[in-house]
Amino acid sequence: MLTLLENPQLFEHDRFTDLLHAVFHLAEELNARERLVELPTTDYNHLSGDLTRVYSQLSLNGWSI
Hints:
- The protein is mainly α.
- It has one domain (2-60).
- The protein has helices at 2-6, 14-31, 41-60.
């Protein structure tokens, strides 16, 4: 997937590039935590915002899960 971000042709498709950035950021945030239970409220809020960003990018682009 990192190869996709390095592809200069993707910069012509800003929305797809934004989606990739959002997905990679969410993946990094999830991997940074050993467990996803009993997290501080601030972490839940941050992850919620990241998930919202991914879903909004999907809906803006007309993709479905």
